[in-house]
Design goal:
Blueprint (H helix, E strand, L loop, with lengths): L14 H16 L10 H8 L3 H13 L3 E2 L7 E2 L5 H12 L5 H22 L2 H19 L3 H18 L4 H17 L9 H19 L3 H17 L20
Antiparallel strand pairs: 1-2
Helix pairs in contact: 1-3, 2-3, 4-8, 5-7, 5-8, 5-9, 5-10, 6-7, 6-9, 7-8, 9-10
Length: 253
């Protein structure tokens, strides 16, 4: 007769996790939106007949997940979605070698190529003006070797394109993926790229912006894909074993 293998003890959800689940169900059931308030800790204690400590732990968990905003003297409120928590997860995955920078770039490419195509369909006149100004800033900064300003304009172009896609997940994922990758790679600020490579990258951004502003979705996607090809080619040691530092909240927004 075959013996049954021993089964590990199944863990019941903690009381605080059940309280957190109750709050999430309440948020969904009531149709709450960012900025709306949720019941206070005291109210939940009375309603569920549980200890204040378990309720406080549940609220802190939801705050750490970027769901609740908790301030002393005010009722907890729902937060706008933020890239911060996702950036922490991606940074942890990079630091522990569960993914490598190439994986991050591949994912960013997929998001940004489609994002550029969507931006070409939905970009506003104000965003077109901003994109062209940012390209000029990139080129001007390159001319005086101001790599910090060039990189700032570079990132602003990608952020504006993501916003122009009208898919709110695009800027969220872009920022969450970008923060740990750029800190991991210590993205060079020009110090490890030749003048010719940097000029090609500026030209690639200009080509993306031209296609987006012209409403050419196919061309915009192709230009963005070429930009990633150039970026990867200029970073031959992309998967070296450097570790990313801890990510500050402001770096992931």
């Amino acid at each position: 007769m075959t013996k049954l293998q021993s089964v590990p003890n199944l863990q019941r959800p903690t009381l605080s996790s059940q309280v957190a689940r109750h709050l999430l169900d309440f948020i969904s059931r009531e149709g709450l939106r960012p900025g709306d308030t949720v019941p206070s800790e005291v109210q939940i204690c009375r309603e569920l007949q549980v200890s204040r400590g378990s309720v406080r732990e549940a609220y802190r968990t939801l705050a750490a997940l970027g769901i609740l905003e908790i301030e002393s003297g005010r009722r907890p409120r729902l937060q706008q979605m933020s890239a911060y928590v996702l950036a922490q997860v991606f940074g942890y995955a990079l630091n522990t070698a569960q993914v490598n920078p190439s994986h991050v770039l591949e994912t960013r490419r997929a998001i940004e190529v489609q994002g550029a195509q969507l931006a070409a369909r939905h970009v506003s006149d104000a965003q077109k003006k901003l994109l062209n100004e940012l390209v000029m800033q990139m080129r001007s900064a390159l001319g005086v070797r101001d790599h910090a300003r060039r990189m700032a304009a570079d990132m602003a172009i990608h952020t504006t394109l993501a916003e122009a896609s009208l898919n709110p997940l695009n800027p969220l994922l872009l920022n969450a993926l970008r923060a740990p990758l750029e800190q991991l790679m210590s993205i060079d600020l020009g110090s490890r790229r030749s003048e010719k490579e940097l000029l090609r990258i500026v030209d690639a951004h200009e080509a993306i912006v031209e296609r987006v502003c012209a409403g050419d979705a196919v061309g915009a996607g192709g230009a963005m894909s070429l930009h990633f090809d150039l970026s990867v080619a200029s970073m031959p040691n992309i998967d070296s074993g450097a570790k990313a530092p801890a990510i500050a909240a402001e770096d992931a927004t």
